[in-house]
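Letters spell out the chain; the tokens describe the backbone. To illustrate:

===
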Amino acid sequence: MKRLFYIIIGLTCTWLPVKSQGILSLDSCRTLALANNKTLLMSNEKVNAAHYQRKAAFTNFLPKISAAGGYIRTSRELSLLSDAQKSTLSGLGTSLGTPLQQAAEAISKIYPQLGGSLAALGESLTGALNNAGTAVVDALRTDTRNMYAGALTLTQPLYMGGKIRAYNKITKYAEALARQQHYSGMQEVILSTDQAYWQVVSLANKQRLAESYLALLQKLESDVDKMIAEGVATKADGLSVKVKVNEAEMTLTKVNDGLSLARMLLCQLCGLDLSAPIRLQDETEQDLAPNVVPTRDINMEAVYANRPEIRSLELATNIYRQKINVARADYLPSLALIGGYIATNPSVFNSFENKFKGMWNVGVTLSLPIWHWGEGIYKVKAAKAEARIAQYQLQDAREKIELQVNQSAFQVREAAKKLAMAEKNLEKADENLRYANLGFEEGVIPASNVLEAHTAWLSAQSERIDAQIDVKLTELYLMRATGQLTIEKPIK
């Protein structure tokens, strides 16, 4: 997000001159393209997602607290006593009444004076025992038709076979991988933008060249017409010049159309309106004067360190190595500390009560896989095979990047040679055109030779423009191959 903020600030700073003057430099085009490219915006969100996944993975080291609750309404309540037991307890005094009465009668025969007292005592005991039995029945009633339960649980992993640590490292590598892929996307956007930029510059120079060539031919046409009128030139000479003028006009039309399309492409890459009247800073330069990049003593280790592809493959290799630990951890012991608080209603801590009461608990859980028919061994071997594949991909990428760097360096040297030859050819073409014009004005050189000189001059000018642009582009490709085509330094 901080990087995106700086891009937006850069976009604001470069947008003001774009609005007022319509002139864009190469750096401002890059900034606009990076700020408006939808693929980069998506990859930036992938970086954010990977960042939050890493933070989520770290929480697995910390204790987790969870709460659960429930309510159940049942049609019948649970009973600890059978119906017969309830009946017996409720009629306990009545059941014991007959034996007590018999005992009282036996005692009254022996002690007649106690007969009335014993009868009253028997009746009293019968009622008391009935009441006591009924109280016991009521006390043992559960009333579980409405049941409530709640639990608060804390779980702290102690040892999970190394899975948590491995997963944390995987998410860390995944975040770095997402960043490297974002940088790789930035390089591709910059490459496309630079190509479109120099394409516009090339066509703008060729537009001026075509206009200059057309002006020369029109002047030659006017001179030939005057010479035909004076009888020193033939109509065939005039027709030849007119054909060349028509060809020059068609060439200029094609260049104008190509330049319009190239500007539209650049506007699309920069996120501007396709019809925006933009002009580029370098398209007004008469001579681009590119500097040839030195290609000697390229440090390949520095190249590998700068290329996001290599860094991405290294991170992928690390991820697959950690996946081996994850696969192995599934078949290692796991130990966790647990604690919590449980409350229920009805509660049974003081007989059955319709009140919320609970208790604390603490303990440990241990899980130990014993036999899985070699499943763990096979999964570990499969993870190791994937890790070796990633390692081979890394080695293959290093070899291809070394070849790409050497090819790009060769192209830079070749472009420098072509530019030097184009400069020499242009000097000769300028001199040849000057002599041809002087000879034609003196009447010693025919119009056909002048047309040939103009054609040679046009070709030399066009080749010089192509050579200069080629030097710029080969320098761009070399920077891309060496991993130096990003605005920001890749994060290790």
